[in-house]
Each structure stands twice: as C-alpha cells, then as structure tokens.
Design a protein that fits this description.
The longest helix is centred in the N-terminal third of the chain and has 20 residues. The chain has two domains: 245 residues, Bira Bifunctional Protein, Domain 2 (BirA Bifunctional Protein, domain 2, 2-Layer Sandwich), CATH 3.30.930; 90 residues, Anticodon-binding domain (Rossmann fold, 3-Layer(aba) Sandwich). It has 429 residues and is an alpha+beta fold. It is built from 17 helices and 16 strands. The strands form three sheets. Strands 1-5-6-11-10-9-7-8 form an eight-stranded mixed β-sheet, with helices on both faces. A five-stranded mixed β-sheet has the order 13-12-14-15-16, sandwiched between helices. It binds histidyl-adenosine monophosphate. Histidyl-adenosine monophosphate (HAM) binds next to strand 6, strand 10, strand 11 and helix 12. It is an enzyme of class 6 (ligase).
Length: 429
Amino acid sequence: MSNKLQGVRGMNDLLPDEAERWEAFEEIVRDWLKSYGYRPIRTPIVEYTKLFSRGVGEHTDIVEKEMYSFEDRLNGEQLTMRPEGTASCVRSVIEHNLIFQNPQRLYYSGPMFRHERPQKGRYRQFHQVGVEALGFAGPDVDAEHIVMCRRLWDDLGLEDVSLELNSLGDASERAEHRQALIAYLERYQDQLDEDGRRRLHTNPLRVLDTKNPALQEIVEGAPRLLEYLGEESLKHFEAVQALLREAAVPYRINPRLVRGLDYYNRTVFEWTTTRLGAQATFCAGGRYDGLIEQLGGKAAPACGFAMGMERVMLMWQEGLDTGRLSSPDVYLVHQGDKAQPFAFRVGEEIRSAGFSAVFHCGGGSFKSQMKKADASGAAYAVIVGDDEAAAGKVSLKPLRDGGEQIAVTPEELVGLLADHLYGTDEQAG
Ligand code: HAM
C-alpha cells in the first residue's frame, strides 16, 4: 500500500495555519516596502540558463552545482528555474528599458530553486523577498537598504540579529588583490583541500570562505581585499558606515565576507542570527555596479538584497500569535429542499454586503451542522429550514457570547451583522 505520492524532497507544503502566517508576514512586508517607495516587479520563474551563468557567475556553487536546469523538450533551449532574483530583475529592466529615464526602486517575492542538501532553514524550493535599486550610484542607497532591513526586523520583533559589512572594492582593485591572493595561495597549494585547489585559479576569494577548520590559519594570513581598496571605494565604504552610525545601526566589519555570487562590488552585507543553527544568514546583498552592463544593458550602478522568507519565518516567533485563524463571520446551516437554494442565495447576499460566510455542504442533522458551525469559529450561525424559506426568513444565532436566536429577513440580517460585527448603529448613521 505504499503508492502514496509525496512532495519533492526539499520542497515544502505550507498548510493553512502556516500559510496564514505567511500572508500576515507578506502584508507587513508590502507595507514596509511601500513606505520606502519600492514598487513590485514580477518576472517568470524560468529563464534562459545563460542569464544565470553570465549573471551569477560560471564558477559559483549556484551555477556549478545547484541549478535546476533542463532542455525544453520542444525546441532544445537550455532553461533554468531561477536560483535567485537579481539576474531576472536586471534582465527585465534592460529588456523593457525601465531605467532609461529614471532610476528604479523595485521589489519581488517568490520561490527560488537551488539543489542544496536540505536541512533546517535550507531547502531546494525556498522563497525570497528581494529589493533592487537600479541606477543609484551613491552610498546613501546602500545605507537605505540596511536601515530599511533594520526597521523590518524591529517591526517583526526579531531578536538576536547582527549585521556584517564589507567592501569588495572595484573590479581593478579586486583584480590586483586576486593576483596577490593567488600568489599567496599557490604557496600553500599542497595544504589546500580539493575545493580549495579547484577554486584557486577560478574563484580564489571563495577559498577564503571555506568552512574547513584545517585551512583557517592559511585564510587568516591571506592578503585582505580591504587593503587594496582605492580612494573612491574607501570613500564610498566610509560614507555608508557614517550613515549607519547616524541611524544607530550597529555593524561589524567582516573582511572575509565575500558572498556566493560573482556580481558584487563595493558594499556587501549579511544579516545573521545564532537562532538558525548552520543557516545563520537570513538576509544578504550589496552593490553590483557591473551587472547591468554585463547582461547587455547600458552601464548603470545598482544595489540590492534578498531575505530568505523561510529563515525569517523561523525567527518570527511573534507571528505565531498574530497569525490570524480566518474564521468566517457566518456559517450557513440549512435543511430541506427549499431551504438549500434559499440559504445558498442568502450566502451570496451576505458576501455582497461585505461579510464572509461558509455554506454547509454535505447534509446532516441540524445538530451535527451546528457542531460544524461552532467548530468553524464563525461568529454567527444563520439557520434555514423549509418553513423559514417559505416565509422568506432566516434565523440568526450568535455562537460566541450568548444572545437570542431571532428570525429576520435577509435584508434585516445584513443590517444586524453590520451592527454587531462593525458596531455601526442608526444614530451614528
Ligand atoms: P543569496 O545570499 O544567495 O543572495 O540569498 C539571499 C538569502 O536567501 C540568503 O541569505 C538566505 O536567507 C536565503 N536562501 C538562499 N538559499 C536558500 C536555501 N537553499 N534555502 C532557504 N533560504 C535560502 C541572493 O540571492 C541575491 N540575489 C541577493 C541580492 C539581491 N543581492 C543584490 N540584490
């Protein structure tokens, strides 16, 4: 009997209790984004594979081993289910010439796909809320992103969050540092692990990101990118920090913060917590001034970040209380051939008046239906028998704080619901 189908490993269902918490979270997030003037953009989940190999970087973990890529059976095109949102957003902005006149503050949210080993806080389908500011060169917008994150964590009541900050400088500074780093790492080639040796010439910065404790000493002694920053990059980095100090956002400079995607330059940051075990980073981003041009657009600066929604939801304890159980206003109980269509119509009238109503399906005695009405959490039962239907009336029974059952017409019913549920009365008009 084990032909029961299961969901794909690492891809989760959100059952109603959890999905309602997510909706509550999404509402908060939307208001927060609007309060900073960000506008939504929605791009497809599937893109051409080369968008990510070019955008995210040929030698990143994401492109080398984590993408869900496939060939379109009908025309042989190489397609990929997006592993992140920045490349898609930039592709769309270029394609539709969106920053031709004005810079854009944009956001998106939705599922992303990476073939990683699933564990707490790490999934193969996960969700991001991403924010991108395109066409802005100054350090003020880098700081805006960090400060707006801080506001959201405060609004959500998240505890135990810290901010790590670094600057990756500009392409030429990175190239110079890269040369020095390769020369340094080559001296330790024999001691590097397989990953390290493989990345030495392709992505030496990532060698510094190793979790291998045996390599920590080598990593410690490696030349630091911060020491290779030129005047402009340093000025930018200092200005971001000054704005953070001004906004009283504490941060720690982590010279080894390099990020797992290749498009970054200058400011990079990660928000971490000790509450999620190994998956400590719940939000991350930075500046990517070269990406628009690299993807075929007219050169323009940009920066952004994305939070992992699953990770934030694991941290949002208060959301457990604020998650609204969506109880209907009314549960419609009915019995009889005439009662059923009448109750069905009354249900529509209740909804037209702006209330929610659950129509009982599946028959059963009045008593068993009343039990269901009670269990639904509805504030009222509206009860219809054939007699009531013949008289064009329904019985309204309060289910929560006592009160008499009364017979009313459907018109009177919506008036009473308005009085009781919204507290309107005649005098108040
Ligand atoms: P990322 O660091 O790859 O950056 O991902 C951002 C966040 O998504 C991570 O900090 C984490 O919270 C979450 N995340 C990533 N992978 C998983 C996973 N397998 N399971 C659960 N959560 C995950 C980006 O994606 C960039 N596009 C961010 C950005 C936007 N940079 C500039 N603009």
